[in-house]
Amino acid sequence: MSQLPFFVYGTLLRGERNHDIFLRGRTLSETPAILTGALLYAGPGYPYAVEAPEEGGVVHGTLVTADPAAYTRLVAALDHLEEYTPGDPANLYERVARDVTRLTDATRIRAWVYVAAPAVATELRATGTLINNGNWHPL
């Protein structure tokens, strides 16, 4: 597996409940970034990015570069947090490699992104609450 950075947009953002639990002390850098071609939906206490390249949405978040010494453990911990198991049709999220744009210099960087799994995405498109500005802020 490539040691790609991660694009986070919900509870893993600095100041949110999972940042210190999973990322604190395990990163080399955290910089503002955007994911284009996706829409953000409210979930039960956390958001979902839904891929929608035809709709031109933008999700705001942070590009996180992990400390290489912590990378393997961090991927396993984030996969568990996001309830992602490769190939499992019951996944809530899928971990996919996508290009994101680092806002400090407009550089496009390939990163891991947890997006809504297909069944979840279908349900969100039908009945979910769209976060129009692409920024998640818990209530």
Automatic annotation (TrEMBL):
Domain Gamma-glutamylcyclotransferase AIG2-like: 6-137
SUPFAM superfamilies: Gamma-glutamyl cyclotransferase-like
Organism from which the protein derives: Streptomyces tauricus
InterPro entries associated with the record: AIG2-like_dom, GGCT-like, GGCT-like_sf
Protein name: Gamma-glutamylcyclotransferase
